[in-house]
Amino acid sequence: MAVSINTVYQTVLYILNKEQRGYIPPAEFNSLATQVQSEIFMSYFPDGNQLNRQNQNNTQNDTEFFNMFKDTSYKLFPFEREAAFTYNAVNLGFTYQGTGSIFKLGDIISTYPGNPTYNSITELVSQSDFNKITRSNLTVPTVQYPLAVTTQTTTLIAPSLIQQLLVKISPFVADMTLNINCLFTPSIPNWGFNIGSQGQYLYDPSAAGPSVDFELDVSEKNALIINILKYAGVIINDPTIIQVASQKAQQTSINEKS
Q1: What does the alpha-carbon distance between residue 257 and residue 145 come to, in Å, rounded to a whole number?
Q2: What is the spatial distance between Cα 179 and Cα 22, in angstroms, rounded to a whole number?
């Protein structure tokens, strides 16, 4: 479940204005919201690694609803989906033409047509290993055990007209398809608004540049508010807000990882 960007913004404004400490306009709030959401998203990976070590040492609580490693994995579910890649003859590889920005690649499935049809789990290797393995008669990839390597396209790809992730598969055969379990980065949050009769900002989810809620799990609502307040304190030059928000964020982090 996503976190309402309007709820977060109104809470931040309430805390800042409660003691006349300052005001954060929508443009600045949107920038801070993007930064904080990205920081929280990126924190899942080192946190998950740390919690997994506790699993390996049998020190992790595995009671239902209290396993922190599973909770962290759950927070990534909204960003995980299978993506179909399209073969690009110019670049001799597969590119993703859908929406969203890919952050990580998971399981790669190469489907080879024929009788029988092979839906082969494809190993992703470095360019150096790819070159060595595909050149050896003993280790050359097959349709049952294909190999993948990633690079960037050498030409601009419509509609975004930028270099994109390119996945090369060995062996490649005509009419084969490629599906990859991908982790996507969160959409950029945005508090949409219109200007009122007195020049005030009025929340309007359908305004030009429409509102986009935080895609993070609802459990991250407090972390979003606290960390946005921390940056807001820097902007309005209020060390009290920075100190209180930083202490609260640190205590929350300790409680979650202890």
Answers
A1: 40
A2: 50
Reduced to 3 states (helix: H, G, I; strand: E, B; else coil), residue 42 is helix
At 115 the three-state DSSP class reads coil
Residue 176 and residue 169: Cα distance in Å, rounded?
10
Contact 9, 36 (CB under 8 A): no
d(CA 184, CA 24): 29
Cα–Cα distance for residue pair 174/129, rounded to 1 Å? 24
* Burial bucket for residue 156 (CB in 10 Å: 0-12, 13-18, 19+): exposed
Let me know if 22 is exposed, middle or buried by CB neighbors in 10 A (0-12, 13-18, 19+).
middle
Whether 180 contacts 111, CB under 8 Å: no
Q: How far is CA 159 from CA 167, 212, 220, in A?
A: 19, 22, 34
Report pLDDT digits (tens) over 212-258. 999 999 999 999 999 999 888 776 666 665 565 566 556 555 555 55
CB 181 within 8 A of CB 6: no
Mean pLDDT in the chain? 86
Rounded distance, CA 127 to CA 149, Å? 6
Residue type, 128: S
